[in-house]
Amino acid sequence: MAEGRIMKAISGFYYVKSGDQVIQCRGRGVLRKQKITPLVGDFVEFDGTHPEEGYIFSIKSRRNMLNRPPVANVDQAIIVSSAIMPDFNPLLLDRFLVLTELKRISPVIVITKKDLLSDKELESIEAYQDLYKEVGYSTELISSRELEEPDRLKSHFSGQVSVIAGQSGVGKSSLLNAINPSLELKTDDISKSLGRGKHTTKHVELVEAGNGLVADTPGFSSLDFNEVTSGELGDCFPEIAELKVNCRFRGCLHNKEPGCAVKEVVSNGEVSSSRYSHYLRFLDEIKSRKPRY
């Protein structure tokens, strides 16, 4: 029995890397009976005695998993936002950040198209960059030229399994192509009529990028909060999670409760009021969703 990691999945075949070899495998029937679907990123035990085709017998415990793209054991998400075209959207960025925190995936924020900004617009974006750095997030603000010389960006990928996340048209494919030019991912200009770009993929694969691995499919295609409870949401905002121990009531949702330490620091400016307003908006969304049976 050998061990390895699934690097690619296509039409029921799983390509498992073990040492320097990649072996084409199928899942054994026992996995189907257990209703377990192998995912790219899984660490598996497999029979690799036949070089043409092996069989996966078991899947080791997962640190985390995403449904879209279907990938497991992700270390970090490179969340790409554009400063302009499309305009920077802090509400959407915070939505991505909540989902990464929920999955215990470390986020790295990359804001693109710095070179297209006026001085006033740049000042505004740099203020947002400072805000997210204060929260504790690694944040990069880059120009098109830095995609041509991406050494600083490559350092974020080293030794990590990453997914790329962000709305269409922000430069995800351009970023991946800069890190690993051999990918030759297609990039489409933003449709001026729709204000968005296009990206189609047929399968998920972990590819080498900056001495690490990255899923060549954008992550977090679904941005709803179906997996987040109202009690968990505060833990997905690091600045709120840090303060909750000082709230008067255990289980405080930092909304209308008296003696809330979070509301107190928001009112005196120690915590971003915009981030807090996004928290309240997400909280309302979670509370108003219909129960599923």
TrEMBL record:
Protein name, as recorded: Small ribosomal subunit biogenesis GTPase RsgA
Cellular compartment(s): Cytoplasm
Species of origin: Lentibacillus kapialis
HAMAP family named among the record's database cross-references: GTPase_RsgA (MF_01820)
Functional description taken from the UniProt entry: One of several proteins that assist in the late maturation steps of the functional core of the 30S ribosomal subunit. Helps release RbfA from mature subunits. May play a role in the assembly of ribosomal proteins into the subunit. Circularly permuted GTPase that catalyzes slow GTP hydrolysis, GTPase activity is stimulated by the 30S ribosomal subunit.
Keyword annotations of the record: Cytoplasm, GTP-binding, Hydrolase, Metal-binding, Nucleotide-binding, Ribosome biogenesis, RNA-binding, rRNA-binding, Zinc
GO biological process: ribosomal small subunit biogenesis
Name of the gene encoding the protein in the UniProt record: rsgA
Molecular function (Gene Ontology), one example: metal ion binding
